[in-house]
TrEMBL record:
Protein name: Phosphoribosyltransferase domain-containing protein
Origin species: Candidatus Sungbacteria bacterium RIFCSPHIGHO2_01_FULL_47_32
CDD domains linked: PRTases_typeI (cd06223)
Gene3D superfamilies: 3.40.50.2020
InterPro entries: PRTase-like, PRTase_dom
Domain of life: Bacteria
Length: 139
């Protein structure tokens, strides 16, 4: 269970490097392997900052290209991010999601306009502090 901290700006879930590693190797990669067996990924893209750590691991695991900028013409690209919170970042992949893109996130918030193909945890606090973030809140 992740640590929950109460701040003047609301509740914050502390997500550690250990939890990230466990989630990636014990949950995310096995789930992605099932999809990859049916429709192999040709590349992975993770938004800079939040998705880049997971994208790097996935790129090595599946031996696929990791793009700094998403390729909209890519045959079967995997899009990975830390959270589908509002859905703004991931929404540009919706028109093609069924055809080409698999979207995977560590966390999913019910308010998101995008429901990822795979998500591991549900956001239930005001903020999640990921290990690659410096601040406890968005302020």
């Amino acid at each position: 269970m992740n640590e929950i901290v109460h701040t003047p700006n609301g509740t914050v879930e502390i997500y550690s490097w250990k939890e990230f590693q466990s989630d990636m190797y014990e949950k995310m990669l096995p789930a992605l392997e099932s999809i990859h067996a049916i429709q192999p990924f040709t590349s992975v893209w993770g938004p800079p900052r939040g998705g880049l750590f997971a994208a790097g691991i996935i790129s090595y695991w599946f031996d696929i290209a990791l793009y700094i900028h998403p390729k909209t013409n890519e045959e079967s690209m995997l899009v990975v991010d830390d959270i589908a919170d509002t859905g703004k970042t991931l929404s540009r992949f919706l028109p093609l999601e069924k055809r080409r893109y698999t979207i995977a996130t560590l966390f999913y918030h019910r308010q998101s306009s995008v429901v990822p193909t795979i998500w591991l945890r549900e956001k239930t606090t005001d903020w999640i502090k990921f290990p690659w973030e410096r601040k406890m809140t968005p302020d």
